[in-house]
Fold:
Amino acid sequence: MRVVVIGASGTIGAAVVEALGARHEVVRASRGSDVPVDIGDPASLDRMFDVVGEVDAVVCAAAHARLAALGEMTAEHLGEALRGKLIGQAVLVARSTAHLRDGGSVTLTAGDFGRPTPGSAVGVLVNEGLRGFVRAAAADLPRGLRVNVVSPGWVRETQVALGMTDTSGVPARVVARSYVECVEGGFTGRNLFPA
Ligand SMILES: NC(=O)c1ccc[n+]([C@@H]2O[C@H](COP(=O)([O-])OP(=O)(O)OC[C@H]3O[C@@H](n4cnc5c(N)ncnc54)[C@H](OP(=O)(O)O)[C@@H]3O)[C@@H](O)[C@H]2O)c1
Structure:
């Protein structure tokens, strides 16, 4: 398969590239890569596909919704989180359909806070929105196209990079397996919690 990974230089994206790279042709994309793309900018998605051409799978492991205490939440913050991670990935699914071969797939990234966590409300809104979007969008896709979402909890490498005392998160290479399942499996409309 020919697979484009958006966010390929990131903690999760790099592990996905490594896991897929053994069996598939992988194109690495992100804002700062040789194949530039900003998922918050729909025109840049079209430019990316102009460069990349037809693919069998699109994986997005980019962007994030920043934690913010409810008292500090502003319309701007909410808009930023929705535009980047939720709307950006929803538009990516819509734009990808024209560039995916029959039976091809899009795999998005949400997240999982596990239990209610202070500052997580916007992130949960985005993550639940993505899971709902994927369930519904799967029924709308033509030509056997598929869409799924992966919802990682804390990734161990990220906890280490942040200097957290708790480093019990799931290693990136284990998280990457869920993306590989979505790309290589035949299912659609599903959410995977890596563990
Ligand atoms: N790490 C965790 O513990 C964890 C847990 C749950 C969920 N997640 C989610 O998983 C996703 C990836 O997380 P990560 O920790 O791997 O992130 P990361 O290490 O910060 O890497 C982010 C990647 O996405 C690219 N990127 C960022 N903004 C982008 C944009 N607007 N358009 C295109 N590419 C963009 C970055 O490259 P450029 O700077 O070159 O664009 C980089 O390749 C995020 O949605 C995050 O919320 C992560």
The mean pLDDT is 95. Helices lie at 11-21, 42-52, 75-96, 121-137, 156-161, 172-184.
